[in-house]
Amino acid sequence: MTEESDMYGRVVIYTHNDDKDELEAKARAGVIPIVTSAPGYISYGVMFFGNTVVSVSAWESEEAAKGADAALGEWVRANSSMQSEQRYTGDFSWLELAPR
Q: Which residues form the ABM domain (predicted)?
C-alpha cells in the first residue's frame, strides 16, 4: 500500500567510540520509550556499521519529526559518545508500507 499522506522522515548518521553492544543496549532502553511515546510516531529503526549508526524514523507531521529530533538529540548528548555527522528531516516523497 502506498501512503501519500503527509508523512515526515528523520534520518541521522552518527559516529561513535562506544562498545557497539553496550551502546545498542543503552540506546534501546533509553530511546525506544522516547520515540514510542512521542506524538505522531510511526516507526523507528537503527542500523550499525562499524563506528557508524544510522537512525531512521517516520512521523505523522513535520512538527512531530522535529520534536522527536530535539528529544533524541538531547538523549544522545547526555548518554553516549555519538556525534551527529549528517541529519535529515523532511517530507517523504513516498513511503511504501506492507499491508497488515
A: 13-66
* Mean pLDDT, the chain cut into blocks of 10 residues (100 residues total): 69 95 94 95 95 96 92 94 93 84
Domain ranges of the chain: 2-90
pTM above 0.90, yes or no: no
- 2-90, what's its fold? Alpha-Beta Plaits (3.30.70)
Distance CA 99, CA 52 (A): 31
Residue 55's contacts (CB-CB under 8 Å, 6 or more residues apart) are 10, 11, 12, 13, 14, 44, 45, 46, 72
Select from 42, 55, 54 the least CA-distant residue to 7: 42
CA 86 remoteness from chain centre: 12
Contacts (Cβ under 8 Å, ≥6 apart) of 1: 96, 97, 98, 99
The phi, psi pair for 18, rounded to 5°, reads: -85, 160
